[in-house]
């Protein structure tokens, strides 16, 4: 693994915090609790807000209130300029994404990156809102609320701040034990995010607490069910976790997660995160289809994530500020998932799947068998047995035809219909090739993505997915 820059090694840094935050998936909740120091950063008033923009209206991201956002790790944006933000916003908009949830921690430089993000969004329809990372930000005393209040107040009138049904959206990662020196969690969070806010706040946190506690947590205007994005075992994804949270929140707002996978591979001598969640059977597509099916019960869909490289669920470009994840991220581009998102995001907002007007093939696979034993000092990731050794293909087709799919000695030919088609093929050592033919046998697409080979002798365990889309 390459070394991360010196600035990311301090426990107050969000890159460090991303790697060492508590494990919150139900199957791993009790595995560890990161202990770390915090640095309270100071704000200045030079947040680059344009005075003319402050008086502008703040429309909803979509007319019927259905919003698609992507979780963005500000801790992985140390080197970002306003131009970098602009290019990422343009890519997200092309993928049908309405905005970013800006995960902010206690880094002293985070306010400047957040200010650049909001400045870059001006003049676009792209929305932004705060996702307070409470595994990094302190919350024991009244003074700890100051940094949160400053964030909320600074962007309440920004034209690109996300408002949902007239309320400024504020979210969290964790924070169910935060009291900010007040009597209880309700008083604490009201003090931190609502008491001094210049606009009404829709507080929709991701609290890793039993859903049975939501009825008494009245400060919550809704719930973001972070852990619902992946199966909690070797099974495929379903809607049961969502339904539990929806029932518990009792008519308040619900943010549903969607994620393409999860793999992290840090040893016990660094950040002690080494596990996978099942991403098989076209998890990203299947999860989107579930959310569209249950659209009436959901207010916002949040993609996990745009740029969390350490956990391998990024759908944006691989940036320069990796949290020492290069060993399993470099060479594993995921932007095809962003391309695919446009189809599902449009369906989510409208309630109707759009007509496919362009033939396209999407391929994804892991680089080696789950059963291999590798000379890797970190060891095989926990839950490795939850995945399957398959090449997954998704075909967006304008009409009937057939798909010829191969990797190594494994081959298949499958009938294709107009719409979205899903095909899987057992993995075999080699590189994949896909050929799409129309109903008369004419070749429409021949696709052999470069840079991916399924191998039998990897240098280390890598359960990340290689993903590619045909031109």
TrEMBL record:
Alphabetized UniProt keyword annotations: Hydrolase
| Name under which the protein is recorded | Glycoside hydrolase family 71 protein
Domain of life, per UniProt, equals Eukaryota
Query: Which Pfam family would be a valid example here?
Result: Glyco_hydro_71
- Which is one GO molecular function term here? glucan endo-1,3-alpha-glucosidase activity
Under InterPro entries, the record lists: Glyco_hydro_71
């Amino acid at each position: 693994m390459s070394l991360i820059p010196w600035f990311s090694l301090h426990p107050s840094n969000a890159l460090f915090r991303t790697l060492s935050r508590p494990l919150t998936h139900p199957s791993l909740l009790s595995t560890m609790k990161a202990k770390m120091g915090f640095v309270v950063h100071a704000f200045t008033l030079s947040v680059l807000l344009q005075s003319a923009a402050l008086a502008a209206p703040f429309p909803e991201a979509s007319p019927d209130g259905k919003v698609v956002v992507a979780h963005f790790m500000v801790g992985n944006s140390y080197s970002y300029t306003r131009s970098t933000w602009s290019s990422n916003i343009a890519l997200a908009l092309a993928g049908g994404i309405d905005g970013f949830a800006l995960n902010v921690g206690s880094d002293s430089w985070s306010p400047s990156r957040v200010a650049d993000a909001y400045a870059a969004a001006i003049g676009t329809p792209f929305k932004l809102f705060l996702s307070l990372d409470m595994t990094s930000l302190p919350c024991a005393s009244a003074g700890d609320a100051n940094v949160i209040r400053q964030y909320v107040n600074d962007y309440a009138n920004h034209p690109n701040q996300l408002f949902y049904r007239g309320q400024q959206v504020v979210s969290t990662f964790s924070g169910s034990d935060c009291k900010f020196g007040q009597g209880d969690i309700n008083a604490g969070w009201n003090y931190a995010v609502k008491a001094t806010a210049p606009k009404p706040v829709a507080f929709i946190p991701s609290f890793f607490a039993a859903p049975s506690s939501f009825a008494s947590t009245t400060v919550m205007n809704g719930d973001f069910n972070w852990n619902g994005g992946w199966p909690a075992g070797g099974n495929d994804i379903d809607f049961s976790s969502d339904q539990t949270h929806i029932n518990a929140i009792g008519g308040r707002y619900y943010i549903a997660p969607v994620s393409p996978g999860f793999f992290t591979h840090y040893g016990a001598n660094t950040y002690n995160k080494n596990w996978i969640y099942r991403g098989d059977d076209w998890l990203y597509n299947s999860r989107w289809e579930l959310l569209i099916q249950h659209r009436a019960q959901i207010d916002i869909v949040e993609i996990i994530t745009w740029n969390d490289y350490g956990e391998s669920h990024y759908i944006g470009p691989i940036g320069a500020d990796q949290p020492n994840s290069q060993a399993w991220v470099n060479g594993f581009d995921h932007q095809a998932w962003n391309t695919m998102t446009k189809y599902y995001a449009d369906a989510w907002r409208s309630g109707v799947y759009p007509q496919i007007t362009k033939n396209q093939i999407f391929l994804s696979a892991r680089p080696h068998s789950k059963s291999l034993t590798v000379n890797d000092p970190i060891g095989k990731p926990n839950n490795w047995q939850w995945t399957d050794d398959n090449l997954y293909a998704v075909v967006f087709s304008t009409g009937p035809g057939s798909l010829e799919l191969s990797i190594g000695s494994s081959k298949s030919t499958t009938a294709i219909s107009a719409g979205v088609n899903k095909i899987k093929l057992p993995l075999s050592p080699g590189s994949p090739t896909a050929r799409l033919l129309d109903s008369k046998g004419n070749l429409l697409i021949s696709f052999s993505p470069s840079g991916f080979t399924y191998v039998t002798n990897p240098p280390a365990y890598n359960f990340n997915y290689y993903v590619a889309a045909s031109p």
